[in-house]
């Protein structure tokens, strides 16, 4: 009986150890956003069942025991946000304001889908069946619609005036962080004044650097205004995206190539690329910081995100990377003596190990190695146990003979 049990254990253990475990990220993936979208974005038809690379890279869940962004409203100055999208439902999205209409209608719906995608990166909640969630899942989204698709169905474009109106509406609506994934290459007094208005109201403004690096790489606004956190894009390998704008104004970089988020009118996910989608990662981190460090000013939040970033292999600020890649754990947990006026060097908290869900390539190899090591031990213990049982029966369960050694004469 014991031998049968041991053999069964060995076979079962070897089967378990040698069975390949498919990484979650390879099970099912989101579909790319339409390249030539006309009119409203359809509902996504596929779901990202694993953990997307951007969420693995930034690992915001490391700090969720400290903060998930509760109490912070993030203004999304964009095309609106669909409040009915499952991972944004349940009160995560306010009604907002449509500044493109004189009557200032709500903006909690979204035809084009750009704003919903951005909002998902910032604050989408967790949901069974997917490893995707937003950076700050307990933050509240304030949608500000300042762009709509044209009558011929072509993508919306924002004027400097519309962006300025959107920033002001977000500030007046109670946002403590504003994300604007749009830009102009022409400086504008009204837009600059709106950014100053946000700064004077202690509001963090995060803006995309734009995608014209290969078309002359112009300076873009509002990203280039001094109080704004300007964000460029990196790919999965950490390289700067080919399209990502460069310049002295760049503050940080974040994932912006093949990133996952939600869309309007249904469950599921899309894949998108652009600095438009890098900026909301930073906006989400800003929300976490503002929630965990409510005493910090908007200027201090910007400084904190910059000095705690993962440095590029270059002198910072670097034209292509700014101060580096935003680091969620360091941004939330680092002790910055300058915030208390001590003037001592920066002390960065030690990073926690990656959780199994965030390990590149999934947990399959780790499980296989663990099983390969543990199975022989289990087999040996089973064999040893069977010998002890048989020996006990032979003795009638009497105590085993005790062997006594004579005392050492040298003692």
From TrEMBL:
Signal peptide range: 1-26
Membrane topology: Single-pass membrane protein
Active site: 78 (charge relay system), 114 (charge relay system), 276 (charge relay system)
Any Pfam family: Peptidase_S8
Domain Peptidase S8/S53 residue range list: 69-324
Ranges where the record places region Disordered: 27-52
InterPro entries assigned to the protein according to its UniProt record, in alphabetical order: Peptidase_S8/S53_dom, Peptidase_S8/S53_dom_sf, Peptidase_S8_His-AS, Peptidase_S8_Ser-AS, Peptidase_S8_subtilisin-like, Peptidase_S8_subtilisin-rel, T7SS_pept_S8A_mycosin
Chain intervals with Low complexity compositional bias: 27-37
Keywords: Cell membrane, Hydrolase, Membrane, Protease, Serine protease, Signal, Transmembrane, Transmembrane helix
Record-annotated membrane-spanning stretches: 363-385
Domain of life: Bacteria
Location (main, coarse): membrane
Subcellular location: Cell membrane
The family this protein is said to belong to: Belongs to the peptidase S8 family.
Protein name (Swiss-Prot/TrEMBL): Peptidase S8/S53 domain-containing protein
Lineage of origin: Bacteria, Bacillati, Actinomycetota, Actinomycetes, Pseudonocardiales
């Amino acid at each position: 009986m014991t031998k049968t049990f041991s053999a069964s254990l060995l076979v079962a253990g070897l089967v378990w150890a040698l069975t390949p475990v498919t990484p979650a990220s390879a099970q099912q993936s989101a579909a790319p956003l339409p390249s030539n979208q006309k009119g409203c974005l359809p509902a996504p038809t596929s779901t990202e069942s694993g953990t997307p690379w951007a969420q693995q890279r930034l690992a915001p869940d490391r700090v969720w025991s400290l903060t998930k962004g509760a109490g912070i409203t993030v203004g999304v100055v964009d095309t609106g946000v669909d409040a009915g999208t499952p991972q944004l439902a349940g009160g995560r999205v306010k009604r907002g304001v449509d500044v493109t209409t004189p009557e200032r209608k709500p903006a909690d719906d979204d035809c084009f889908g750009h704003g919903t995608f951005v909002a998902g990166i910032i604050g989408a909640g967790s949901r069974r069946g997917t490893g995707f969630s937003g950076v700050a899942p307990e933050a509240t989204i304030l949608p500000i619609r300042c762009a709509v698709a044209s009558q011929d169905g072509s993508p919306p474009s924002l004027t400097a005036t519309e962006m300025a109106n959107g920033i002001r509406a977000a500030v007046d609506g109670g946002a403590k962080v504003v994300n604007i994934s749009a830009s102009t290459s022409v400086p504008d007094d009204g837009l600059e004044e709106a950014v100053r208005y946000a700064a004077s109201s202690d509001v963090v403004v995060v803006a995309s650097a734009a995608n014209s690096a290969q078309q002359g790489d112009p300076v873009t606004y509002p990203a280039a205004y001094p109080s704004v956190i300007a964000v460029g894009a990196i790919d999965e390998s950490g390289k700067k995206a080919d399209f990502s704008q460069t310049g002295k104004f760049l503050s940080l970089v974040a994932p912006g190539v093949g990133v996952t988020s939600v869309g309007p009118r249904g469950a599921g996910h899309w894949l998108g690329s652009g600095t438009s989608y890098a900026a909301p990662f930073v906006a989400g981190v800003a929300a976490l910081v503002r929630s965990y460090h409510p005493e910090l000013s908007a200027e201090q939040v910007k400084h904190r995100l910059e000095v705690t970033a993962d440095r590029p292999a270059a002198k910072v600020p670097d034209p292509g990377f700014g101060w580096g890649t935003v680091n969620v754990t360091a941004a939330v947990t680092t002790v910055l003596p300058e915030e208390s006026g001590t003037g001592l060097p920066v002390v960065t908290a030690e990073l926690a190990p990656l959780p199994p869900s965030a390990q590149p390539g999934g947990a399959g190899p780790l499980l296989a190695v663990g099983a390969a090591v543990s199975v022989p031990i289990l087999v040996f213990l089973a064999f040893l146990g069977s010998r002890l049982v048989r020996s006990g029966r032979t003795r009638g369960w009497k105590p085993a003979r005790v062997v006594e050694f004579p005392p050492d004469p040298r003692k």
